[in-house]
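Obj: model holo form, ligand = 2-acetamido-2-deoxy-beta-D-glucopyranose.
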Amino acid sequence: MLLLILLLFNGFGYCGGSTDAPQALGLHHPAAEEPLIFHLLHIASFKNHSWAQSRASAWLGDLETHSWDTVLGTIRFLKPWSQGNFSKVELKNLQALFQLYFRGFTMEVQAFAHQFQFEYPFELQISAGCSLHPGQAPESFLNGAYQGSDLLSFRGSSWEPSPGAGSRAQNVCEVLNRYQDIKEIVHSILSDTCPQFLAGLIAAGKSELERQVKPEAWLSSSPSSGPGLLQLVCHVSGFHPKPVWVMWMRGEQEQKGTQRGDVLPNADETWYLRVTLDVAAVEAAGLSCRVKHSSLGGHDIVIHWGGYSILLTLVCLTIIVTLVMLVVLGSWYQKQSSNQNALSSGVSSCTFPLENNTQCPRSLVHQLCLAQESWIKNRILKWKRSRNQFF
Ligand SMILES: *[C@@H]1O[C@H](CO)[C@@H](O)[C@H](O)[C@H]1NC(C)=O
Ligand SMILES: *[C@@H]1O[C@H](CO)[C@@H](O)[C@H](O)[C@H]1NC(C)=O
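Output (holo structure tokens):
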């Protein structure tokens, strides 16, 4: 029995190590950062031939950096660094261009609505922007949609109907392609102005964009579809930047059934991710959720599913059983003075290697066990003392 306790307490040594996973695992690292895309989103709603409304915003990746004030006809800069490295004059010129665009867009669409077979009420969406790839030419894009379906895009220096968009799209492109000046302006903004602005914006917003915030992780479960099945849920929240690697593991083995949700935004511009695994309830023990993120500097978060509680239950049960036996045996030996030598040697070798277990988590359960451990030690010391007095 004492040997069993020793083994268990030695085993206890690895119940910690939660955040210090071995590095030489050869596991994937969080996806390399995707290139940042800067894009402008314009949504125009047309109720009837005399009523229309436009909303516009600009985004750097998932971060809203600008919006358009439709009343004042001005750019709103939503971040302290939203002006990038453009001068006041350059920004003023851009603002004037956008004023012209928003006004002209509404007027032209209303004028051509009948010819383009746009049926009131309808919505047009335009997404235009660019991205920078290290060592490559910048890429730019402009896509338009009618009622939520792709309609056209701007490629090279002309308008092209989207595949499957039909005669309406061909008709629109045919008309748009007649305006050479507009095509040149669009081309210049997409291929020159946008990448320049984006580079300046990334430089100006560097500290916020590269902000590293560590994730928190916790586990929960919910009954799964079938009887005896369990859905284990690993929640990872509060991290920045967005790329993160989360996997359900058994030891070093990635669990293939791991399902990853969408990375969702928190209100404080950090991210949240939910990763689930459906397992038979009896197989849940020994599973863990592993999180890799750039903010963790290689120290993955590993949370064990019920790992401690099962081990601790076993340990505590063993302790209690042993205790009872020791107490019973002790009082029995105090009364019966036979066979002392054999027992004496057994007890003096009873040293608990507890002091080395500094890695164990300071959880409530663990403190409880520590308390029990010291209680056992005291018991044994007392018992030894009383035995010494006795002899
Ligand atoms: C157009 O729609 C607006 C907003 O719904 C409405 O107030 C207006 O009377 C409509 N005009 C016409 C000509 O139907
Ligand atoms: C802004 O910075 C980018 C990249 O550093 C550069 O290409 C561009 O010319 C700059 N623009 C201005 C107005 O300084």
